[in-house]
């Protein structure tokens, strides 16, 4: 294989045929990549992905991998070095601060606020009209919630959301780097302001928690940036992908219309069927290891693909079928092991409340354009729609 299969234009529109072909050939295989010319190992099988997610020989410390290697990238330090790009003990310190923000009790407290945000957004929707599910619900809902959680002023939220979207652009590294600096610089200003004028707002609370947890100023900014970016980008795609999957499977949509109480139980299958995280963030081998019968030498990038693993027939028979009765709890859309997404409970709550409101208020909703004409974001890391026009 001489070309990166994850950069083919067809991959962005529908990665699953590519994943199936690669997995059938070998669930762990070496591929060329466009990231600095480094070959990488891609993991597409479900048992192999679970194993790799928990193998301590696969490091997430990107600075360690790229040290001494030539690079033309210019990411802001808050984006380049964060909890997702670290190993214990640094990762443990960050996670100890982040996890309490997303406990079951904390998310339960946020549910009335999430409901109000959904109500406010849908108040402008009128039967007989068209809306863009992405722009009119899937983007503003998680952006509003995570910015409320962090205490980001309302006047800053639209700009931060736009920079976050730019950060996932797989086709323009200069745009990605510039967005990282805009986010990092802006959050540095907010953190410095909160530290200079102590108060009782959410960001003041986060700063105190970071101080008590042993995080310095730069680490506090990096954690705030990660919570902001991860807290809305993937949830946006979760909601958009779920609604599109239901529109393409009207029998499943009809079940939720008839009984909206089935929505919470449908979330795992919707996450499995079209994962908002297609390829997990960067890992590299620090020692020689063997995964799925394949030898991976030390010093190589390793890409774990939850989007592929979730369609592995060895784990989920008939994986290309959306089946709301399936036990899909073993999906890997939130990762696995110590790096499993701490914000999963919040993402599930937002998607549940949004989907329940949609099927209750607009039971006759349909796609306003042919599904084949939809445009997907050009990023291999996440999978999400640029827009999803709906006829109410």
UniProtKB/TrEMBL annotation:
Belongs to the cytochrome P450 family. Keywords: Heme, Iron, Metal-binding, Monooxygenase, Oxidoreductase. GO terms for molecular function: heme binding; iron ion binding; monooxygenase activity; oxidoreductase activity, acting on paired donors, with incorporation or reduction of molecular oxygen. It comes from the Bacteria. This is Cytochrome P450. InterPro entries: Cyt_P450, Cyt_P450_B, Cyt_P450_CS, Cyt_P450_sf. Gene3D superfamilies: Cytochrome P450.
